[in-house]
Each structure stands twice: as C-alpha cells, then as structure tokens.
Write a structure and sequence with these properties.
Layout lengths: L1 E9 L12 H16 L5 E7 L2 E8 L6 H19 L26 E8 L4 E9 L7 H9 L6 H4 L1 H4 L2 E7 L4 E7 L3 H8 L5 E8 L5 E5 L4 H5 L9 E5 L7 H6 L6 E4 L5 E4 L1 E3 L16 E10 L2 E3 L7 E2 L6 H16 L19 H6 L17
Parallel strand pairs: 13-14
Antiparallel strand pairs: 1-3, 1-4, 2-3, 5-10, 5-14, 6-7, 6-8, 8-9, 9-10, 11-12, 14-15, 14-16
Helix pairs in contact: 1-2
Bound molecules: fructose -6-phosphate (F6R) and magnesium ion (2 copies).
Length: 380
C-alpha cells in the first residue's frame, strides 16, 4: 500500500508576540482535518504547534505535491487567519501567507512542506520534527549525523541495509538548484556544501541500496520569497525509522549535543537548538524569543493512518529525563552567546543580515563615509 505523509506548516498569527497560536486556531484546524478524514481525502490528520507555527501532519494516498492536499492546508491557514487571527487581532496574523496566487501547490507561497510517499512496510515507524525560530539549514547537522556519521548511527557500520549509505538531495536556496550526493563516497563534498546552512539545505534523503525514501525536510526561505525579513522559516522534517533505516534512538541521538543554528531573536542570531517535550509544554519560546527549539513526534504509519500512543496522539520523544542534559547545555550556550550582544558570530554575519532591518539602519551612515587619505611616507 502506497501512503504519503504530508507535513505542512505556517505561522498565521500568535498570542503574546511570537509565542504560540491561540487554542481556537488549533481547534479550527482540527475540525477541518476531521472533516477531510470523513470525506476520505485524508487517512489521518493531526494538528499541533511548535512555538508560533501551526503544524498539519496528514496521511493520504494521493502522492506528493497533490493539489487537493495542498489546497486543504492552504484553505485551513487562510480561514484560520480570517476567522480567528484577524478577528482576535493576534500578532502577525497571516504572516506566512505571502501570496494569494494559490494554484494547486503551497510551495513558494510561504508555508513549509515536507512530504514522503512510500510503500508501507510490515511496520513503519516515523518521526516528525518541528522547529521554531530557525531555518531549514538547521537540519543539516542532525541529518548528517543520522544518515552519514557512523559516530552517531551504529547501523551504518553494523546493518547491511544501511551499510551502502544514503543519497542526499541538497538544495542551493539562492540559485534554486539541486544536487544529489552519495555517502560515504562523497561525504567530504556533502560537508563542503551543507557546512553553509544559510545557502545549502538538505531536502530529501534516499537509501542508496534501493532508492527507498528515508527523509524529507521543508526548505522554504521566506525572506527569499518576500525579499525582506518576514519571520524565520521554522522548518519541519519527516524521517522513516527502523528495520533498514536508522533506529529511532539513532535519529534522536543526533540532537543530544545542541548544534548552533541561525534564527532566534529577529532571525538575526545564532543560538543552540534545544530539544523539548511538547507534553510538558516546552514547545514555546521565551528567552530572547528563544532559544531555537525542536520537538519530536513519533508515530506508526499503519494502513494509511497515523497510530500514536493513544489514538493519534504521538509519542513525545524528547520527554525522557535524559533530554534535561541537552536542555541544560542549550540554556548554558544560550546565556553564553548573549554575553556577546550584537557582535558576530553571536549575531549573524553581514551577508546573512541582508534580509533583516539592519541595512536600513546602516544606510544613513553611507554619506558619512569618506576616502582614506594616503599617508605620505617620508624617507629618512
Ligand atoms: C523571530 C521572530 C521574533 C521577532 C521579534 C521582533 O523569527 O519572529 O524574534 O523577529 O519578536 O518582532 P517584531 O518586529 O514583529 O516586533
Ligand atoms: Mg510569528
Ligand atoms: Mg515560528
């Protein structure tokens, strides 16, 4: 049976600044998803949030980039904006809906999309990650660790099905081009690209031995669509696990030492990616609008539906007390980085600030710059 998992997300307004969506927004989206289950369009539909972003997790049999599925997500975000966000004057109402030109696909219009279509195996565990206050390239280090580094994923060494490695589709977000690189053979080339996460982001991963899809990430760069800063992209990611894919524990272990990612306050800073429990309500930002955070939802994909720990409720994979260690580490790094204020590398580099409001501030200094006078060198 072929099943598609579509994760589509957008920030269409929030309470208390960029903190979290209003519960009415989530209730509205949940009702719409339930209706789509009843008409048979969806096998399952689940709505949640990561910080101020609404995340729709849907299963169906229509394949990737399907106009009906994208249309459903688009209409949910539009209606939530009109009927709840604007009515309640929520902050940033409709923020990520950058264009009204919907014609069958939400890509390029603002919402983030990660989709994976596959033949269901005997049993198919997936993990869906959602992050807030960061960009698509934030997945580069975790995905490299999970699918290319034997120091993280024992299966790359031990399991014959993983031993042949993986193929990484890497997007050049500036030039809108894509390249496929195969690990372990091309690992150094891969690192050469994805070490620049503001420009190169991993969009898809396939298992090399049989081209089975293994992972899909959202790669929207809102600022590149809008030409100005309109909030961070806050990416999502779907990973298939176990029995020939990395184990859930290998996938999660890539987040134990928080990587520094771009985003955080005003999308202009580097901060640690903190793994959080959504059941404990940790999936909201506070300190300096952060630090950036990631939550992990575990499901079985079974006969076209999502099976969680109770009904559709997903396993909360960063709830284990072990993750207090990573959270503590991230908090320490966050406080440390803030001691640097607005100096690089705590603040993003000049090129990366192009789409923020800093250029407007610096513009007024332009007329005050004068040529450097050449000093006369006098010989003795
Ligand atoms: C980051 C983010 C926030 C805002 C900040 C200022 O992605 O959304 O950090 O950039 O709170 O927001 P405004 O300019 O809306 O007051
Ligand atoms: Mg927001
Ligand atoms: Mg957000």
């Amino acid at each position: 049976m072929r099943t598609t998992v579509s994760v589509i997300k957008a920030d269409v307004g929030s309470v208390a600044g960029h903190h979290r969506p209003h519960q009415e927004m989530l209730n509205y989206a949940a009702r719409k998803l339930r209706e789509a289950e009843e008409t048979g369009l969806l096998g399952s539909g689940y709505v949640t949030h990561c910080g101020d972003d609404i995340i729709l997790v849907m299963t169906h049999n229509k394949g990737e980039n399907n106009p009906e599925i994208h249309g459903l997500a688009w209409s949910i975000f539009k209606e939530v904006t009109e009927k709840v966000s604007r009515k309640l004057k929520l902050y940033g109402a409709g923020q990520d809906l950058l264009s009204d030109a919907f014609s069958g696909n939400v890509r390029g219009l603002g919402p983030g999309v990660a989709e994976l279509e596959f033949n269901e195996r005997g049993s198919d565990p997936i993990v869906v990650f959602a992050a807030d206050k960061t960009e698509p390239g934030a997945w580069n280090i975790p995905l490299y660790r999970i699918f290319a580094s034997p120091d993280n994923t024992a299966g790359l060494v031990i399991d014959p099905k993983l031993h042949d490695g993986f193929k990484f589709e890497v997007l050049d977000l500036i030039e809108s081009q894509v390249v496929t690189l195969k690990t372990p053979e091309e690992m150094y080339d891969l690192i050469g690209l994805i070490g620049t996460p503001g420009r190169y982001a991993i969009s898809k991963i396939y298992r090399a031995v049989d081209d089975e899809p293994a992972a899909a990430a959202s790669t929207t760069r809102l600022s590149l669509i809008a030409g100005r800063y309109v909030g961070k992209d806050d990416p999502v990611l779907v990973i298939r696990c176990q029995a020939g894919f990395p184990a859930v524990g290998e996938v999660l272990s890539a987040f134990a030492v928080p990587p520094l990612v771009s985003g955080w306050m005003r999308g202009s800073h580097r901060g640690p990616l903190m793994p959080v429990s959504f059941r404990k309500g940790q999936n909201v930002v506070s300190f300096f609008d952060g630090p950036p955070r990631v939550m992990a939802m575990g499901w079985q994909v079974s006969n076209g539906r999502l099976v969680g720990v109770e009904g559709i409720e997903p396993a909360d994979l960063f709830e284990d007390p072990f993750w207090e260690y990573a959270r503590q580490k991230a908090a320490e790094l966050a406080v440390y980085l803030r001691t640097m204020g607005e100096f690089e590398p705590a603040r993003l580099s000049h090129e990366e600030m192009e789409y923020t409001t800093l250029p407007q501030i610096l513009e007024k200094l332009k007329p005050r710059f004068r040529p450097v006078e050449e000093k006369q060198v006098t010989e003795k």
